[in-house]
Structures are given as C-alpha cells and as structure tokens.
Write a structure and sequence with these properties.
116 residues, alpha/beta, Rossmann fold, 5 helices
C-alpha cells in the first residue's frame, strides 16, 4: 500500500507543489484548502502524515490538530508555519502535533517525518 499524506493549506500553490513532488516519489497525496474537509478526511481514514498550515482564513491549524487528534489520537500531524512564535503553534503542539516546520520549507524535512 502507498504511503499517504493529507495536506490542509489555504495556499493552492503550496498544495500543488507538495502534491506534485510527493506523488512523483510514489506517495498518495490528498490536498484541500477547506479545513472542515481536511478534518473529515483525516478522521475517515488513516494517513502516514497530515500537514496543516497554522494560519488560514476560516480555521487554524491548532483547531484542525485538536479535532483530528480528538477523533484519531494516533494521527501524526505536522504544522507548517511562517510564524513559529505564533501562540497557535504552541496550542497545536499541546494538542498533539508532532512538530512544526517553517515556511518556506524543505521537502527533505517532511521526508524525515515520514521515516519515523
């Protein structure tokens, strides 16, 4: 079975880049700009890694992390942010996010989390 990623971000360009890169490496990649859809998708099935942006217009990565981890305590959520000192980052980590990576990020850093 293919390793899988779910990515929730309000920037379509980020979603497209991650999808292209990781699909070329053989991963199944599901992307969405809709936080509610991301939450329901993450709850409906397991993913090897879930990436979520911390700052989005409708919802934020901390809320997404809290909702996913409440329903799937084993979910591995990684927060993407350009603002590592944002209080929402601490909230997401307290909710069970495994770590944060800063934008702009290196694909190798995401791969490191997929190896764990």
């Amino acid at each position: 079975m293919k390793r899988s990623l779910l990515v929730v971000d309000d920037e379509q360009m980020i979603l497209d880049a991650i999808k292209i890169i990781f699909e070329d490496m053989g991963f199944e990649v599901i992307t969405t700009t809709n936080p509610a859809e991301g939450i329901s998708t993450a709850i409906a099935r397991p993913f090897d890694l879930i990436l979520t942006d911390i700052r989005m217009p409708v919802s934020n990565g901390a809320e997404i992390t809290e909702a996913i981890r409440a329903a799937r305590p084993d979910a591995r959520v990684l927060v993407i942010t350009a603002f590592p000192n944002d209080p929402l980052v601490r909230r997401a980590l307290d909710a069970g996010a495994i770590d944060i990576i800063r934008k702009p990020f290196e694909i190798a850093k995401i791969l490191d989390f997929l190896k764990e």
